[in-house]
Amino acid sequence: MSSFIIQGPQKLKGEISVKGAKNHALKVIAASFLSSDEITIENVPQIEDVNRLLEIIEEAGAKVEKNGSTLKIQCSKLSKRGLSPELVPQLRSSIVLLGPLLARFKEITMPHPGGCQIGKRPIDVFLKGFEAFGVDCKIDNYTYHFKTKGLKGMRFDFPKPTVTGTETLMMAATLAKGKTTLINCAAEPEIPALAEYLNQQGAKIKGAGTHTIEIEGVEKLSAGTCQIIPDRIEAASFAIMAAATDSHIKITDCEPLHSEIPLNTLEDMGVNISWGNDWIEIKGRKKELRPMKITTKEYPGFPTDLQAPIGVLLTQARGTSTVFETIFEDRFMYVDFLKRMGADITRENSQKITIQGPTSLTGKEVESPDLRAGIAMVIAGMTAEGETKIGNIYQIERGYENIQERLNNLGAKIIK
Ligand code: EPZ
Known about the structure:
Layout: E1 4-8, E2 13-17, H1 22-31, E3 38-42, H2 48-59, E4 63-67, E5 70-74, H3 98-105, E6 107-111, H4 124-133, E7 136-140, E8 143-147, E9 155-157, H5 163-173, E10 179-183, H6 190-200, E11 204-206, E12 212-216, E13 225-227, H7 232-244, E14 248-252, H8 260-269, E15 271-275, E16 279-285, E17 293-295, H9 307-314, E18 319-324, H10 334-340, E19 344-349, E20 352-357, E21 365-367, H11 371-383, E22 386-391, H12 394-397, H13 403-408, E23 414-415
Bound molecules: ligand EPZ.
Ligand EPZ binds next to helix 1, helix 4, helix 5 and helix 11.
């Protein structure tokens, strides 16, 4: 398994352009099953999660043409009724394929998409939603068999907001018979971006981006071209990285409005930060970093995907900070690695930690338990004194395109 070696502390300087959003691109790729026409997707991040999903849809019969960050996909037929039992468990978010597949092909078999390091990632809400659509679901030893005579529009209240749950049922509803109303939906920016693209293809979706989405089913969707929106988590991760290393960098081709809460949090901490319509500039710290009480929330609250990166920064703030993770059951695997590096962190319970700072961090051997904890380890390695070795960097490459070269272009010294 390959690793990153980082000699800290490191100062960064220069400009870094943000890539397309992983959590938008994956759903638009899944949406290609909704139409038999060829679709084009631009600004697709070249990352491992995208590669895994493309392998899954190609194995199922889709024709995929990749040219840098532009994809052309055509799903005129399915090669078989089942998704690969080897490939699907490699990508939890492959669950989003279910909506388009059932809407168009009416029958599909797939293994449970698997949990991951941040939780067992249940799919109970998806199953309830498909049942409401009139899908018959049978489970035998960890494989799901879904069958329907045709999806019928319905009203579904999400027991809790789920991002991929909202996207999967919204995609299914575009070709269902009649009207579907989804209540208590997630409102992350990638959802209205997906809806806008589907409407361009002839879907009739209203309210995406709010907690109530209404979809009038149509006969078919036609060809379309989608431009993937900037990755708000990547942009804010780079801002946190610059704050932690007290660096002056400019982050370009991003959408600061999608990261308002995290950027305001950095400002409240005493980071010298400013932003315009498509850029963020960090000029180190105005003064000593102030401690914060962070609670992760659904959008537009503080995103759970930035919980690990901000956790690293809070080790450098003077005073007592707390982090309360409300979305996933255990997203603190990075804490033990940070403590190994010298951080003073107490785990109050599986959802809450207390951080005393500032503490100086020393380079150690660590791992990246999930992709967001992985980039947090990179930030810690850049902040620490001495050599940090980060194992399992596949987790980082799942979601950050060409991250070693892009950060080294900012003056980092990351060796693979
Ligand atoms: C999406 O995951 C993102 N992934 C996650 O990003 C992100 O952290 C998460 O939304 C929250 O913003 C993609 O978009 C591919 P949820 P998702 O369903 O949709 C529970 C990253 O690092 N739940 O909104 O899987 C679930 O366990 C990834 O890029 C059920 O209980 O998250 C969690 O506790 C990590 N039953 C909560 O809901 C279900 O059927 C919210 O999860 C579905 C979800």
